[in-house]
Fold this sequence. Notes:
Residues 1-24 form the signal peptide. By secondary structure, this protein is mainly β. Helices cover 8% and strands 43% of the residues. Strands 1, 2, 3, 4, 5, 6, 7, 8, 9, 10, 11 and 12 form a twelve-stranded mixed sheet that branches. A hairpin with a 2-residue loop joins strand 6 (108-119) and strand 7.
Amino acid sequence: xxxxxxxxxxxxxxxxxxxxxxxxxxxxxxxxxxxxxxxxxxxxxxxxxxxxxxxxxxxxxxxxxxxxxxxxxxxxxxxxxxxxxxxxxxxxxxxxxxxxxxxxxxxxxxxxxxxxxxxxxxxxxxxxxxxxxxxxxxxxxxxxxxxxxxxxxxxxxxxxxxxxxxxxxxxxxxxxxxxxxxxxxxxxxxxx
Length: 192
C-alpha cells in the first residue's frame, strides 16, 4: 500500500473515529459497545518476505490519524532468555496530545513501557504505569537508554531477521497493529 493510500485510509478512519468513542476492554467483544472505536492493522511492506529483506532494521512508517509510527525494532535475544527490549518512533502531527497507554504482543506474556534516566550519577530504570505522552507537534522515540519497550515472559527468544507483532493502544487514536523487525543485539541493558 502506498503512503498516499495509507494517508487517505488514515483520514477516513479519523472521520469514523471522531464519532466512535468507546474502546473494548481486554477480552470484551466490540459488539457489546454502542459506539466502538476502530482497530487498525498495519504491517511493514516486508512482512512475509524476511528471506529477501533480512537487512531491514526498522518497521516501515505507517500513518493513522495524526500519528506516524516508524523506526521500530526489537533486539535479538540469547537462547533461553525471557526478556527482550525494543522501541519505535511516534510522531504526532496533530494539534491534540495523545498517549501510548499499552502495548501487547502474542510473542510475550506482557509488554511494559520503561524509562531510563540518570539520578545522582546513577542510571535508574522505572516502569511507566501511565504510559507515554505523545504531545501535539512532537516526536517521541522509544529506544535503549531512554524510553523503551520491555517484552516480558517472551515465549520464544527473538532471532535476528524475525518479526514481532505488537498492538499499540493510544488514548485518542485507539489500537494500531504494527510489526517490529528483529535486529542484532548491540549494547543496551539487562533485566533479570
